[in-house]
Design brief:
By secondary structure, the chain is an alpha/beta fold. Helix content is 39%, strand content 17%. It has 14 helices and eleven strands. It binds alpha-D-ribofuranose and calcium ion. Calcium ion binds next to α1. Pfam families: IU_nuc_hydro.
């Protein structure tokens, strides 16, 4: 069965890989992409999304979202994702343009176009999803499934000691999103809660040079050996155009994780969210009431899960607590490898 899918991204290296996974999946019909400011500014996110559609030769409408978070001046992460958000990769030039309506409107239009059927991922700051919920409070009832990459549950942050990037960039938006769900169901038991994948689970999904080489092989492409001993910024020599872009993007991401003390690897936060959106059985989840700290001097942006129901609130999230990385990578490599191979045969 093909699911209509909407992706809200702050493209970034792993966001790009999540979009490629969705395009590579026969069970997904990507109906729209919302560009959210985060890893880079919203204009660059939009350019990255349009350039990726050009590279992948697909026509998915790309909208541009808000320039700033709801209340906090935008911070970006060029140190992590590169000056333009895709590491060392360059995308093909394109004359494609974003939609004339903004990303909040794109959310609402996609949900109304596929009532009860739309599957969505939000893998950047939640600014535009929060704006969409203000415009259409019934959005939670219109979505079949929502998977959010954000937060860190009983786990350290990657932006402050306790806060994860997507939530940290716009904590007010995250709080509005997480607190909108039960309101939308007004006393009824919510038919479905958002699946929330924090660093505690997404950091189990670590791309390595060996896995990237497996992907190139699956695509019928040559690949570029990669290690921490390479000179910085060595460019890909892969024969396949998509593999070359992914290798150049991943090398920057490997180098960032290596410098951050994590090893020469890269956490694929957003591709896990994309895979779970198409198959929620990939992860084990626990229902809990959760919320976001907004005023803590040291803890602003921290996500808290009330596992023991101390607050006496209804659960508002299904929080990811377990995943088998091998199952994910086998599926990722099979799908994206075949997609890259098909793309390579047309170029
Ligand atoms: O903290 C990881 C998240 O922040 C990922 O979505 C990554 O792309 C960045 O947006
Ligand atoms: Ca992201």
């Amino acid at each position: 069965m093909t699911l209509p899918v909407f992706a809200d991204v702050d493209t970034g290296v792993d966001d790009a890989m999540a979009l490629v996974y969705l395009l590579a999946s026969a069970d997904a019909d990507l109906v729209g992409i919302a560009s959210t400011a985060g890893n880079v500014d919203v204009h660059q996110v939009c350019r990255n999304n349009l350039g990726l559609m050009e590279l992948c030769r697909v026509d998915v409408p790309v909208s541009k979202g808000a320039e700033q978070p709801l209340r906090t001046p935008l911070r970006t992460a060029e140190d992590t994702h590169g000056p333009q958000g895709l590491g060392y990769a360059t995308l093909p030039a394109t004359d494609r343009q974003p939609t004339s309506h903004d990303s909040a409107e794109a959310w609402v239009r996609a949900a109304h176009a596929h009532p009860g059927e739309l599957v969505a991922i939000a893998v950047g700051p939640l600014t535009n999803l929060a704006l969409a919920l203000r415009r259409e409070p019934a959005l939670p009832r219109l979505l079949r499934r929502l998977v959010i990459m954000g937060g860190a549950f009983d786990y350290r942050g990657n932006t402050t000691p306790v806060a994860e990037w997507n939530v940290s960039v716009d904590p007010e938006a995250a709080s509005e999103v997480f607190n909108s769900w039960n309101k939308a169901w007004e006393g009824e038991a919510p038919k479905h809660l958002p699946i929330v994948l924090g660093l505690n689970i997404t950091e189990d999904i670590a791309m390595t040079p060996a896995l990237l080489a497996r992907l190139a092989t699956e695509a019928g492409s040559t690949s570029t050996p990669m290690s921490e001993h390479d000179e910085r910024g060595r460019r890909s020599t892969a024969s396949n155009p998509l593999i070359a872009v992914l290798e150049d993007a991943m090398r920057f991401y490997f180098e960032f994780h290596f410098d951050d003390g994590e090893g020469y690897l890269a956490h694929l936060h957003d591709p896990l969210a994309a895979a779970v959106a198409l198959d929620p059985d990939l992860v084990r989840c626990r229902a809990a009431a959760m919320d976001v700290e907004l005023t803590g001097t040291l803890t602003r942006g921290m996500t808290i899960a009330d596992w023991s129901n101390r607050w006496g609130r209804e659960p508002n999230a299904l929080i990811g607590v377990g995943v088998d990385p091998q199952v994910f990578f086998d599926r990722f490599i099979t799908r994206v490898g075949a997609f890259a191979r098909r793309l390579g045969s047309h170029s």
